[in-house]
Give the backbone structure.
Amino acid sequence: IENLKKEYNFSCNKELKEKFFAAIDNKSIMENKWSIDEKMDLAVELCEFKDQKITLKELSQYIQQRLRQPKTNAMDFLKNTTNALIEDRIIKYEKAHLEEKHEDFAWLMKEYHDGILLFNITDSIVWKKAVKDTTGLKTFFANNRDKYVFPERMKADIIDVNPVTSKRKTAKVIKRAYKEGTIDKLQELLRNYYNDTTLTVMQDSGIYEKGVNRYVDATNWKLGLHFAEQNKNTGTFIFNHEILPERQKELKEVRGLATADYQNYLEAQWIEELKSKYNIVVNKELLKKLLEKN
């Protein structure tokens, strides 16, 4: 603060300040009953720095605002409050003029301002529009359907049995369960077959593209039951139901991806519109120097 006071040529009318303090009833200050004396000439300037003025009226209002703060001495309270006002005003002025004093900070603030501005414009023109413009999204999706395609996939079940004492016998029970439509009761069937109430079965059904599940890939996409691997006591079996042919995806199946692509499309359109509207000139010599430095 002291350095800023020197920089800003801060000065204060000490005599006026002392007269103002002397006119204040200390008892009313301590009892929080003091009020601004409107009969006094409060427009008079108490302190100044740069193009700023601090008047007695501003100080009086500041005292009034802080009157209920804890205090042990009226004069100390007045002095501290005056200093607080001065510091507050100087700091506010300094913050308001940082960009004028510090070029790097000015560029940082400009970058921040431009970044927020660009974000808000992009949000309005691209991101929100892509989400809200359902008609536009449907049209974009219809025009780009070939991009959204499911490749050939396998509908399969992955079955983990623990323990597997015999792969051949376990496979036999699983095949019969599929044939009879009782696969949902496989754990019960295997427990009865082996007379083992601790035997557990974990089943997971899904639709798999090639390269997604190593167990399904290991079956070479042949239909029916396959034994995948034995890991300690757990045996993994794969049952391939059917191969689903390649087909185009529906919008509801890829809405998130299609929306993102639609956003990119809108952004590309917007950029082309800006390019046609504004003449962009690149200082190639300066750009080359910047690239060489980096």
Summary: Strands lie at 11-12, 45-49, 52-55, 149-150, 153-162, 200-209, 224-231, 234-244, 247-248. The chain has three domains: 2-96, 99-148+252-294, 150-248. The two ends are 39 Å apart (CA to CA). The mean pLDDT is 91.
